[in-house]
Amino acid sequence: MMHTPVYDSRCEGSFLRLPRDLIRARELLISLVWKDLRVRYRYAVMGFLWAIIEPLAFTLILSFVFSFVFGQRIASDAGSAGPPYAVVLLCGLIFWQYFSLSLTSATTSVVTNGNLIKKVRFAREVIPISACCMPLVQLGLGFIMLIIAHLIMGGNLGFTILYVLPLFAIQFILTLGLALFLACFHVHYRDVGNLVNVLLLLFFYGTPVFYPLELVRSAPLPQWIKTLYMANPMTGLLTGYRQILFEQRFPETALILWPLLCAVAAILTGSWLFRRFSTTMADYI
To answer: Is residue 264 a contact partner of residue 170, using CB atoms and an 8 Å limit?
Structure first.
């Protein structure tokens, strides 16, 4: 007797099936990343050079603003007994831009690829994952530019640079977890995309991107404000990158432990929530 396979949406929505489904969809993931890269840079005259020009131009603008317009306070605090302010700024900027660009793209990625979701059955998580993988090219080029600038300005590099890999792994997991969470909610509430843009703008100033963490620690602020500031996991990550590259040491444990816990919580929550609602996403697109 022949058995007719029966489609069961509950089985597809099972959280335990996620690793196996992602492995099966690996070729689609690669195709989506490659498609996004071609769309972004194919018809650009300067191509991938824009991945270097954007953070470099932003660095020059902010360096000018905070070094000359605002009386050099931030620049002097960042550069005292340390690397030049431009390098410190660039270090925070390239990793923040990866975080910001990934979340912005991933939040709307499911709705943007609505036609694909309606026509093909696959692990829907592949779409926000690909949105988080595409900016890795820009981050890689920016990191090379950072290393070159650091060496040109008299800095040194040691074996501690390898610590950047596990630290970025924490940031990637954190970003991916938030991306899955936000992409799921954006399918049901289209205001989420606009909300993410506003929050990223606020967190840009509430994260030590263009100023060092020491400036906040030494500021005469109430302790609860400093505690709230440190609750931002990107605060510890960006400071950790600077300690690795410029101080050539492993980041402070207190700075890394909280982002690690946030990353684990984000990836588990985001994956579970996205998988739970993935089977009905096509109905809302």
So the answer is: no
What range defines the domain where residue 77 resides?
18-278
In one letter, which amino acid is 200?
L
Residue 143 lies in a domain: yes
In a domain, 11, yes or no: no
Q: Name 93's Cβ contacts closer than 8 Å, sequence gap at least 6.
A: 55, 58, 59, 62, 142, 209, 210
pTM: 0.85
Contact 145, 126 (CB under 8 A): no
Q: Which of 260, 100, 74 is nearest to 182 (CA)?
A: 100
Give mean pLDDT in consecutive 10-residue pieces for the chain, a chain of 285 residues. 43 64 78 77 61 71 62 54 80 93 92 80 86 89 88 85 95 96 91 92 91 86 90 95 91 92 95 86 74
- CA 107/CA 109 separation, integer angstroms: 6
Structural domains in the chain (count) = 1
Sign of the torsion formed by the C-alpha atoms of 70, 74, 80 and 82: negative
Residue 285 included in any domain:
no
CA separation for the pair 217, 14 (Å, rounded): 45
